[in-house]
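Annex B. Sample input.
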Amino acid sequence: MRRARSNGKFSTSATRSFAARTFADVDDLNSQFRRWRDEVAHQRPHPEQRDQTVAQVFAQEQPRLLPLPAHPFETDVLRAVVSGKTPYVRFDRNSYSIPHMHVRRPLTLLARPGEPDASSAVRAASTASR
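Annex B, continued. Sample output.
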């Protein structure tokens, strides 16, 4: 079976550009990315319209783009989980501790992006049994 091929132009150049970078936080990484996008990626010739740069073609397309939604999308993940014998639940390839009284009980896991650390990013609350 053959693996699907993708257009690797961005991923190859992004990997080359960002693999060894250091950054202080997400804001620093985003500013480095914007600088790279504006100074390197957008200055390249457009793959289909070789007489224009990527930035020029994007400027022409921008008025036709749809605006962002007025309200952000919900990104929280709610998932029903049950721990095994140990006081841990698995989420996103990580184990998160739960209070011992919730072991082997149905739980609702709530994961929110942008939490300061992994331990506060995932919370498990016991589900009321009826």
